[in-house]
Amino acid sequence: MAEEDTYTKDGTVDYRGNPADKTKTGTWKACPFILGNECCERLAYYGMSSNLVVYFKYHLNQHSETASRNNMNWGGTCYITPLIGAFVADSYLGRYWTIASFSIIYVIGMALLTMSASIPGMKPTCHGKDNCHATDTQSALCYTALYLVALGTGGIKPCVSSYGADQFDDDDENEKKHKASFFNWFYLSINIGALIAFSVLVWVQENVSWGLGFGIPAVAMAVAVVSFFSGTRLYRYQKPGGSPLTRIAQVVVAALRKHRVKVPADKALLHETADAESAIKGSRKLDHTDDLRFFDKAAVEVQSDNIKESVNPWRLCTVTQVEELKAIVRLLPIWATGIIFAAVTSQMGSLFVLQGETMNRHLGSTSFEIPAATVSIFDTISVIIWVPIYDRILVPVARKYTGHKNGITQLQRMGIGLLISIFAMLYAGALELIRLRIVRQHNYYELDYIPSISVFWQVPQYFIIGCAEVFIVIGQLEFFYEQAPDAMRSTCSALQLTTFALGSYLSSLLLTIVTKASTKHGKLGWIPDNLNYGHLHYFYWLLAILSVLNLGAFLLIAKWYTYKKTVGTLS
Predict the structure, then answer these.
(1) Rounded to whole angstroms, how far apart are CA atoms 307 and 302?
(2) Bridge partners, residue 7, by sequence
(3) What residues pair up with 566 in beta bridges, in sequence order?
(4) d(Cα 230, Cα 402) in Å, to the nearest integer?
(5) Would you say 48 and 211 are in contact if contact means Cβ atoms under 8 Å apart?
(6) 563 three-state secondary structure
(7) 1: how many CB neighbours lie within 10 A of its CB?
(8) Three-state DSSP class for 462?
(9) At the N or C end, where does the chain have fewer CB atoms within 10 A?
(10) Cβ atoms within 10 A of the Cβ of 516, count?
(11) Residue 392 gets which letter from DSSP?
């Protein structure tokens, strides 16, 4: 290997701050520690969150609609806090130290949650399995723990997938081919952790104790931290590039100041550094693109800029800085189309669980009762099945026909996922309609569950969503990383994650609107405490209609998307 090919060209360094040696750092040598960390962290997260709506309803004594809304609001917050972690990572600490520091907050929150469910005086008072009462102080303690976890996960979620992708040199074609596979296996590791959570921990929570059911995830989180630190010497590190918000603001201000200035037809006349590297630390130069030309005004040189002296970035910006902002603006419409899909997936932790509670959860003719939340394991199984099929079968086959290195483009992959997700809501609504017909035929209105309809009839709706996730979520992970400017990759990963926050909030808002509208004049509404009197299928079909409209919008946006283009390398 030639001397110049020994080191990475994307600006990454080793743990000592020296240029990263390809033979000693990164690639699949480093990734097992990151994948192990993600597997354990997701086991902790899903082990705590997957059955949380049941804990709210029966142990904090909340109504079905209130429990679902509180669960969705907390889940949404877990996908908003990544904006905080991403800003810290891209601006100051870098991804490694952001993950490390926020993990400590995460562990503290998990420990506090375990205590709130296990220590007398701190845990709700229960008379029987599901007859509990929580004081305001006990509820506040539970929520404090949960929102500490939400803050902790905010530093991990936006950084860990990007940090794994950082282990592959963007300017090495051989390594770059493995990056797409990394995102597939990264999402697989998430679902292996989720599989254990859904299959084991949910049962422990409902049949042993909630203290132990929250305690095991706390231990898993500690293991995740150990796994992450174990790979320190093998990792490649991307230097933080300073505040992305400041750079974006500078472009906007400079463009507004020059709103009357005409942009030259020759892009070579726009301001850019003469050096091979960009002015932004840790970032390659970006080539000029022809859309969103108003922002190009920020890079137009005028006499008052005094470019021979030190340049004021609030008056004159480089082409790369302008293209950073353009890249973010172009991502926003694609980002917005992920919100409806996120609202669909949020049903797995709320209304799917409550729907499952009304079905026969016994395993065959035995007395063993499956927790309704455990059925979500089939979403995880679906992902575990589909990831290797996609990576090892669909991609090579598609590659032969399209010639594309990934088989299909990331946007095509996401569009297929949006289409598949529609069928999950159609099936869930049809199943609920069948269940209600059985209730009416046999007058089962006051029964806790319908003996003639098994909870396993929910399996297809979970399985379909799992299939959709393999296409859209992994496609989003890769797309937002690839299309992000080098110094804003954590920020763009956080942006992708906020779709799940807004999806949860949208679902919560729809629940509130639907409940208010459908309970007028003393009616029970679509989603009453006793679902046998409700119309839950209407809500599923509402989401299906929104999903169809969302797919149409995505296809129009994807057709006009302009991809970013990098220029040169970093030494």
Answers:
(1) 9
(2) 21
(3) 286
(4) 40
(5) no
(6) coil
(7) 7
(8) helix
(9) N
(10) 10
(11) I
Structure tokens at 91: 């601006």
pLDDT digits (tens, 9 = 90+) for 433-478: 999 999 888 888 888 778 888 889 999 999 999 999 999 998 998 8
Query: Could you tell me the sign of the dihedral formed by the alpha carbons of 563, 567, 568, 571, in that order?
Result: negative
Q: Which two tokens stand for residue 166?
A: 């950082």
Indicate the helix (H) or strand (E) that contains 29: helix 27-49
Which tens digits make up the pLDDT trace of 512-560? 898 888 888 778 888 887 888 888 889 999 999 999 999 999 999 999 8
Q: What phi and psi, each to the nearest 5 degrees, are found at residue 281? A: -60, 130
Which one, of 564, 384, 420, lies nearest residue 479 by Cα?
564
Task: Give the sign of the dihedral formed by CA 128, CA 131, CA 137, CA 143.
Answer: positive
Distances in Å between the Cα of 13 and the Cα atoms of 23, 179, 566, 568, 570 are: 13, 18, 20, 18, 11
Helical ranges in 166-241 per DSSP H: 173-196, 202-207, 210-230
Give dist(CA 187, CA 499) in Å, integer. 17
Instruction: Give the distance, in angstroms, between the CA of residue 137 and the centroid of all CA atoms in the same chain.
Output: 32
- Please state, in angstroms and as integers, the Cα–Cα distance from residue 295 to each residue in 245, 254, 292, 322, 330, following that order: 15, 8, 6, 6, 13
pLDDT tens digits along 474-518:
899 889 988 888 888 888 888 888 888 888 888 888 988 988 888
